[in-house]
Design a protein that fits this description.
single chain, globular
Length: about 325
């Protein structure tokens, strides 16, 4: 076996590790629980209006200005592809290999097709691409993708905290725990940095594993830049979701949405089909409009992933050629 083939085999071996049965089952159980709750709420709301469930849901879609909705959603989805690819490109150039943005964009866009099944799998495809193109061991690129996901969570926690603090009295008491979660996350991040820099627990072998390579190399400014690069997506999302919510009968300010949307996005990151947790969160946040919020959450989150997958189809031929030759 030649030297270049070894990292490719390593990447394939890493991807071949199958999840345990309970790990595959849990996302579907979560989805089932969410839709069971939504069905109960929607059925009660439909009965209160003296109509059937399907008719009640159809009314939630009927009065939406869909052309206006598409006019704000499509640019937002395109913006997401551009900046998300920029984050991936930056991290790979920092920790793995020098590569052009024009080479990362097609594979990142194509990976959105895999996001229909699992976001982690889509980032694994990027790791395989860099492995085949540059000979970088698969686990090292995988480490960079884990770092990206870590920063995505911290970005959402940061913006949720800002939104809640700006509009403290406008939020339900349950949201007042978010600043405390942010404080705990800050403490965890400090310990993480001390650990991977070798300043504490220097004898633990866990730090030296390949999957944590990016965390060993990352400086605080790396995390800051990643979060800053994602900021336009969060702010654009606040504007788009606030305007779109009004089309479905909801009406809140941009400041309130700044606190709500990152929490919703954290729910959307929960494994499972159809972003059921995010849809459930909308209904819990606006309990007086279960039909409109179910419709809103369903079309917003699922249009986003399907549109990005459609963009990925435009680059699929090139990505397939570069992945499999």
């Amino acid at each position: 076996m030649n030297q270049r083939s070894q990292p490719i085999v390593a990447a394939r071996g890493a991807g071949a590790k199958k999840a345990k049965p309970w790990q595959r089952l849990v996302p579907f159980l979560i989805t089932l629980a969410c839709f069971a709750y939504l069905y109960t709420r929607l059925n009660h709301a439909a009965a209160a209006q003296g109509t059937g469930l399907l008719r009640y849901l159809a009314q939630s879609f009927a009065n939406v200005n869909w052309l206006y909705w598409l006019a704000i959603m499509i640019p937002y989805c395109v913006l997401y592809v551009v900046f998300d690819s920029l984050v991936i490109w930056s991290v790979i150039n920092w920790f793995n290999a020098k590569i052009r943005y024009a080479d990362i964009l097609p594979i990142r866009a194509s990976a959105y097709i895999l996001s229909l099944v699992n976001e982690q799998v889509s980032k694994g495809a990027i790791a395989v691409y860099v492995n085949r193109r540059n000979g970088v061991p698969g686990w090292e690129v995988g480490s960079s993708m884990v770092l990206v996901m870590f920063c995505e969570i911290y970005s959402l926690i940061l913006w949720a905290t800002v939104g809640v603090l700006l509009r403290w009295n406008s939020f339900q008491p349950a949201f007042h725990i978010i600043p405390w979660i942010a404080l705990g996350a800050a403490v965890f991040f400090t310990l993480l940095q001390l650990f991977f820099s070798g300043r504490i627990a220097s004898g633990i072998a866990l730090r030296d594993r390949s999957i944590f390579r990016a965390f060993r190399l990352a400086k605080i400014w790396h995390y800051g830049v990643i979060i800053a690069l994602r900021a336009p997506l969060v702010l654009a999302g606040v504007v788009v979701y606030t305007l779109a919510l009004r089309l479905f009968g909801g009406s809140i300010g941009f400041g309130e949405m700044l606190g709500i949307l990152p929490v919703i996005f954290l729910g959307a990151a929960t494994p499972g089909p159809m972003h059921s947790v995010a849809i459930l969160f909308w209904v819990l946040l606006f309990p007086d409009r279960p039909g409109q919020m179910t419709a809103f959450g369903f079309v917003m989150h699922n249009f986003f992933i399907f549109f990005n997958a459609a963009v990925g189809l435009l680059f699929l031929r090139r990505a397939t050629r570069e992945l499999f030759g």
